[in-house]
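README: folding subset

This subset contains proteins for which both the sequence and a predicted structure token string are available. Records are stored as plain text. Below is the entry for Cleavage and polyadenylation specificity factor subunit 5 (203 residues), shown exactly as it appears on disk.
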Amino acid sequence: MSSIRTLTLYNFNTSYSFGIKDPVVEKDPSVTSRLARMKDTYEKEGIRKTVEAIIIVHDHGHPHILLLQIGNSFFKLPGGKLKPGESEIDGLQRKLTKKLLPIGSNESETPWEIGDHVSTWWRPNFEPSIYPYITPHTTKPKECKKLYVVTLPEKCTFAVPSNLTLRAVPLFEIYNNATRYGSIISCVPQLISRYNFVYLNVD
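--- output ---
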């Protein structure tokens, strides 16, 4: 039986500083166009491989997850698509650095402490539905998405595009709330319940 890991979490509001950078243009104006682009890419490269980070911090002694908010209602875990032949860890480092750190940040000196791979999700078809298992009769899934737990050091500076917002959302708000956050994010509290947390506050 494996031992329960302990993760040290720092206060989101007192440990970290925040900046902004130029807005990013969304490649797809709608879910339909995103799935159409996914189909085109699949025909050239095969299965889409993506990695996303469950970045854990705390506020008032309760775990929070960092989410990127687009507009008023859409939330996503930071991460993205791997390049062909790129490893999952390298790809996640690259995506987090590009999306969350100031321009010019060195990828070899990033603050991300990438830990356990805790979940794998599969998209059977070019449709919105995605599952934490390969569905029956699916021989060629169209996307494989892997989630990694990521913790932060005592200090770092974030910078996100001006058309996005970085939110620290408490577990109690996410839990069982697929209507607002989607099937993957709403499962995060269960995925990280295996850990013990130590909460530190730094002035």
